[in-house]
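FORM 7B - TANDEM STRUCTURE REPORT

SECTION 1: FIRST PROTEIN
SEQUENCE AND TOKENS:
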Amino acid sequence: MATKLVILESPNKVKAVKGYLGKNYKVVASQGHVRDLPKSTLGIDIEHGFEPKYINIRGKGELIKNLRQEAKNADVVLLATDPDREGEAISWHLMQVLGLDEKKAKRIRFNEVTENAVKAAVKNPDEIDMKLVDAQQTRRILDRIVGYQLSPVLWKKVKNGLSAGRVQSVATRMVVDRENEIRAFKSEEYWTIDALLETEKGKTFKASYVSKGKFELSDKEKADKVLEKTEGKPFTVKELKKAVRYKNPAPPFITSTLQQEAYKRLGFQSAKTMRTAQELYEGISLGQDGTHGIITYMRTDSLRISTVARDAAKDYILSVYGKEYYPPKARVYKTKSGAQDAHEAIRPSYMEYPPQKIKQYLTNDQYKLYKLIWDRFLASQMASAVIDTVTIDTDCGGVPFRSTGYTVRFEGYMALYDYKNDKDEEEEKATVLPQVEEGDVLECKEITPLQHFTQPPARYTEGTLIKALEEKGIGRPSTYAPTITTIIQRGYVEREAKALAPTSLGEITTKLMCDNFEDIVDYGFTASMEDSLDDIESGNKNMADVLRDFYEGFEKDLEKANETIDRENYKLPVVETDIVCEKCGSKMVVKSGRFGKFAACPNYPECRNTKPLDKDGNPISKESAAKEATPAPDDIKCELCGGPMVIRRSRYGQFYACASYPKCKGTRPINKELDVDCPLCGKKLAVRHGKNRSTFYSCTGYPDCKFISYDVPTNEKCPVCGSMLLQKRGKEDSYVCSKKDCSYNADKKKSKK
């Protein structure tokens, strides 16, 4: 009997896929990429057709050795990495690294981790799609060239340690441009007039003056003139309009809309949304039902739904809600032009697992996101809501007023998921109106002029920035979350409450880029590069041609920039304070660090004096910092003096400090709880600190549970026994099983010998 080796991308899928296939299948994981460009050099031979120089990723030698042995022992190797460009490239790299040929190695793809999907993929193996691989390679090479050749320019002309990126620079520019719009905005005054009217039966409702334009009443004088016309005159109903409006559901999620709605409804940052969605896709243990991926692939911009999924949704709607909640004709959503249609929209893999039924198996975040995906998908297949709208036009001395209202006649899909766009939110301001007839005379109880001022555009949030990136065609579903994370981590953008604001560094860097590398930060140019990658994938363009066309202009810009950029034009602004450095007498300046702004001596490095600043920019003394710090729990006492402690922060993170500091300098570490379950008892694990700042991990149930590990606990499962995998300390891609007698660990020891 022939043996078959299935190589997945993530170890989290191993248990589920292994359960679907028979004994003759061995299922292992590559744990992501196995080869990449070297970090120490450019790794691109530009003079010879932009040939990439790949090397095996450091720390993956043992994994590659094991995979090579497994492949040697198998008759057939099925490469089952994720069904996208990145996954296709990983499969291609595996073929190169493991020395496989096209006769022995085949490519299989599945959009959902379900038994039917996996078995169908195994029955229909395919070849590596080199067009997808070339599209991924082109993106990787472009990003490497921009990052490695442009970043040194920023080091010389702005500040050491900066980095540039093909998409991150454009995203930063969008945040900077929005900030400039806000600064340039000039507020304009306008007025509205509201009247409170009462019917003969004593029912009241609001009517608003119908202006000819937003600025018709541009000042109080004009508003007063309108009020004079209405003084002492009755309000008469001139026209009554009734209509029925059908409100259609929103389509199922694609990557960008999932990130936007998860941010809006759940407060999830984009990285958290994608991380949680990945967990739902790769596999959740559902007790006796086994491990299953419960949503389809989460990186997609297609609205397509399979016929099987649509029929399953129909059966569920008919059985749970009734036939009136299903539309006369099944809903089919049209994917926008230019979108990749390789995968379905994001939807539940099974209609047999409603969120409430499997809530016990999900973490809180997993449940929230799964329910959001479930509700959105199911609602997208349901009947429209039926809305009765009413408009009452009234007249007072020739001055027109209008009232609008609505009632829901049939809730349809809104019984499950009430998606609101901007128009819906405006409609919500309307109210249920009383019964009136044309010609009715209404009493005015109160008439009120209201002054308003136009508001500047709002800063981007993560959700609105993703929407803007998508609308401009910048990046792709898989890049939105890492792009936003990158520009924040690198100090170009910072969070202010929920909004994204540019830092001084982000603004100066964007100015340099716009002045000297216009194409790199041009919205249209960046979008056209994404189109070129799509053209490579579809076979309409050649990888080398796209790279050559890009590099010709980029090389000229680099040469010119190195010769002409004057560092004096791109100096970071120095904000001087009134704080005098007690060590050298100079006035201190404001600097930004990992934990916010602080005052620093301008004579650095000769004088290294610094002071923490509060939110208003005032210096915080060590004594006041201790007093204003957050109190620690009552049971946390100082080990030196027995007094209460407070939570302080240092460059190493938060810690407990004695509240009487500086009189008492007692400290103790904070043991941070992890979102990882103990493999022995199921309680949460926590980070602990031993002597000499050594870190280890143990169960919060100690002393009842004595689990301890010096390796890092993960939510990934062992491909052999299903127990927790531990990441070897200091080795990003090396894992051992938490169950010490597991054969997975034994295999690793053998391979070392």
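SECTION 2: SECOND PROTEIN
SEQUENCE AND TOKENS:
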Amino acid sequence: MIGKLAKSVREYKLPSILSVVFVALEVVLEVLLPFICSDLINFIQGITTQGVDGTVTTLHQFTILSVPTGIELTSLDGGIGYIFAYAGILIVMAALSLTCGLLSGMFCARASAGFAKNLRKDLYYKIQDFSFENIDSFSTSSLVTRLTTDVTNVQNAYMMIIRIAVRSPLMFIAALVMAFTKNWFLALIFLAAALVLLGAMALIPKRAMPIFNRVFRKYDKMNLRIQENVHAARAVKAFVREDYEIQKFDDAATDVRKDFTKAETLLALTNPTVYFIMFVLILTTCTLCTVFIVKGQTDPNFHVIGGTLNLGDLSALVQYAIMILMSMIMLVMVLVMIVMAAESARRIVKVLGTESTLESPVNGIKEVADGSIEFDHVDFSYAGDDEKCALKDADIKIKSGETIGILGGTGSSKTTLVQLIPRLYDVTEGSVRVGGVDVREYDLESLRKNIAMVLQKNVLFSGTIKENIRWGKQDATDEEIVAACKLAQADEFISQMPDGYDTYIEQGGTNVSGGQRQRLCIARALIANPKIIIFDDSTSAVDTKTDALIRKAMAESLPDATKIVIAQRVSSFEDADRIIVMDGGRISAVGTHDELMQSSVIYREAYEIQNKKSDDGEGKNAIA
């Protein structure tokens, strides 16, 4: 898992390393400051004072705190200069420590933000290569959560790892070593307290981990509620179901809140536990040091356990005790963040480690000879189970340039059949050939560039009309865009817009009607000049006259392209070369309109329902 995530660091390795280096320098400078301060305090203890009455007194331990006002500190051997030298050293070290801390923070921020950028990029690119089957297995809402919340959690964990996770153990070791140089007995007490604290803290993340595992799955459900409501906002309002949907979202959000509350309650125990142990340790240190120092001054026979002690050593040991325990606090913070990020990391790595079920073969064929299509006894199952086939024994040959209509009831696998042509899914049994070659032998990009699909669910992207049309051909000229829109019968309504072809399309095409959206999607497909063009019920929102004009324009402008039209309206393909009738996942019948009127009950019933005759015998079209 770590190896896969580390690949996303890439060009941000140097900032990551520099962050670690400057953190180490900062720690070294910080632990040296108390040591030098202790020497300075010890030196001051030996400085003499001359009172206003001319008497000279040597300062001993603690007497420096009670020097009367007006006494001027002097040194018999130039001690004032020595103090200023110490002060200068301390100021320089503090400035260097601050500089190292700032540089470490800067490089850490750059590295973590860059890592998150690369991780999102890698995830997004990976998802772009996914087949429909892969996307279905993860769900859209789950992929969105992984690209947003999960990446943010991993970014925060990485930021803490390259800075605080480095600083904490270094600070702990360095401060402990310096404490041993002052008094090994008290240093052992510090070590024991730190180990007790670490043991207590280790239990909390262990209990919190299962909760975080659950909460991210609930995040996916909550995001699914949001996605459904945003996409289906019109339906929600049309059926006055706002209260119902609000309650569904509230239930999902409440589940997330409950789990997070449990986890955060456990994690909230860390700070009071740490601070309690820290204050007890500081109190113990001060008490022992005071006893040792006073006894050492008053009792010549008393030997301090662990070495000698004086006022400067007391100051240093207190600071080292704080450093040791603060390093433990920071380490616990890192552990908590890692616990939260571990599940996110696993979810991200699962996406990065998933290979698309559809891969281009090595040295795949890049040229599609023509638009001929052959289904050779094809079975297909979305579940990969031969017993649950959505498509069964599909066997048909389509010549290049033919116009093929496909009719069938809901769930008859019309869309499934055509999705196998550009290899959006792989067949379970049999084969699909395009231009005489099995689609599995083609380079995927080359195959799909020669097959244009106008999907059942029309999708436009935020941007101008020109930008949307150029999805079909990136280098299309303005003249080619206009020509494609004229074929799709879209030029008329585009010309009436204030900005014409530069009109901005809102996300999902919400500022155009359903029929306009369909015609723009048709224009986007036509501009690619494909060898095969598939219309999956893509003229359902246009009137019969416009539908007829689109079919006529296609027949005239794309005579060599194979055209496959799925529609519920028989008039959309009544004049097709052949019509395929689907029923229950099988090809029920194939023929021309006249042939099917004689041989197919399904086709004849559909035609008669849509073309009821009046009493005087005149035909009257009805839109299904």
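SECTION 3: OBSERVATIONS ON SECOND PROTEIN
The chain is about 60% helix and 10% strand.
Confidence is low (pLDDT under 50) at residues 48-77, 613-624.

SECTION 4: SIGNATURE
Preparer initials: ____
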